[in-house]
């Protein structure tokens, strides 16, 4: 679905609600040329108690923290951004949506040092279904290990959601889709498994769960953290910070992606190697079912993860 097909007509930009088509920046915006911006991706779910934003405070905290390496000081406090987001959802009468805050260096000059450029901030919300397709949640996805490597934290901060750094993700995604796969998996510079273009990855072996940690150049995903909590509460042993080789992907009992957009998506093959039975495995199924019970508020557990609009 394109933006022009969606029933949304407002964006919050630098303190004002503006019409969707009027939310514009100058062609010489620093962030456009050099990728000097940070962003977040957040889900708001339709529940019996109204729209509920999933782990908003954690996403907001990461938004501010992401700007620090770039000296991006967001000129609005947490309360202002929270009120703006909630008002956007209310004004457009959305029961569920995806939320995209972004902050970037704006128009002033085009030297590499952006210190004279203003920091501009915008928030958009829109309906967005399953990122990798509704059928992917049940049937799983076919993925390929990318020829592109995930950049190291010594090159670009890996725990900041930096706009420019996502060209790495774009390259991996384009390559995978061009070769007939749904998504990619990145290895890090050491050749170990890192993550997907927009997802963290989990491996299941002998009933235990393994996932790469920060040392493997991953983003510390908030859905990742939530799934670890859910899995441990279900009684699973989770090895957070595991080193996973490429070959271990092929011999895994189960694999699955997690992310704000992907939620919990099974992986059925890697490089045309069938994973397990080539279907959603039992561990993935139990975690996915529990996760969806949580986010759709079919349980009172983890109530502190939600902010109701």
What does this structure look like?
- The structure is a single chain.
- With 309 residues, the protein is of the alpha+beta class.
- The chain folds into two domains: 3-126, D-amino Acid Aminotransferase, Chain A, domain 1 (2-Layer Sandwich); 136-295, D-amino Acid Aminotransferase, Chain A, domain 2 (Alpha-Beta Barrel), CATH 3.20.10.10.
- 25% of the residues lie in helices and 28% in strands.
- The protein has eight helices and 17 strands.
- It has helices at residues 30-34, 56-67, 78-91, 136-139, 167-178, 222-233, 246-250, 282-295, and strands at residues 10-13, 16-19, 37-39, 42-47, 50-54, 97-105, 119-126, 141-149, 183-187, 193-195, 200-205, 208-211, 238-240, 254-259, 263-270, 273-274, 306-308.
- Strands 8, 9, 10, 11, 12, 13, 14, 15 and 16 form a nine-stranded mixed β-sheet that branches.
- A hairpin with a 2-residue loop joins strand 15 (263-270) and strand 16 (273-274).
- The chain is globular, with a radius of gyration of 19 Å.
């Amino acid at each position: 679905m394109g933006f022009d097909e969606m029933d949304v007509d407002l964006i919050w930009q630098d303190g004002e609600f503006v019409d969707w088509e009027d939310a514009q920046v100058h062609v010489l915006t620093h962030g456009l040329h050099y990728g000097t911006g940070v962003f977040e991706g957040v889900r708001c779910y339709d529940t019996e108690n109204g729209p509920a934003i999933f782990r908003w405070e954690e996403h907001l905290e990461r938004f501010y923290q992401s700007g620090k390496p770039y000296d991006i000081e967001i000129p609005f406090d947490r309360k202002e951004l929270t009120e703006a987001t909630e008002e956007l959802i209310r004004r457009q009468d959305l029961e569920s949506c995806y939320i995209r805050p972004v902050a970037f260096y704006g128009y002033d000059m085009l030297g590499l040092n952006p210190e004279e450029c203003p920091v501009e901030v915008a928030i958009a919300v829109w309906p967005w279904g399953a990122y990798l397709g509704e059928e992917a949640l049940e049937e799983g996805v076919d993925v390929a290990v990318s020829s592109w490597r995930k950049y190291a934290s010594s090159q670009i901060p890996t725990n900041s959601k930096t706009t420019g750094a996502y060209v790495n993700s774009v390259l991996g995604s384009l390559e995978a889709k061009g070769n007939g796969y749904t998504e990619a998996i990145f290895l890090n510079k050491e050749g170990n498994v890192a993550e997907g273009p927009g997802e963290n990855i989990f491996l299941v072996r002998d009933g235990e769960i393994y996932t790469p940690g920060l040392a493997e150049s991953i983003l510390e995903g908030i859905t990742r953290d939530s799934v670890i909590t859910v899995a441990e509460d279900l009684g699973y042993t989770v090895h957070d910070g595991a080193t996973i080789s490429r070959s271990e992907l092929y011999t895994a009992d189960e694999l699955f992606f997690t992310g704000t957009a992907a939620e919990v998506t099974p992986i059925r093959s890697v490089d045309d190697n069938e994973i397990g039975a080539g279907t959603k495995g039992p561990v993935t199924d139990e975690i996915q079912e529990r996760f969806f019970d949580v986010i759709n508020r079919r349980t009172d557990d983890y109530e502190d993860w939600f902010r109701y609009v």
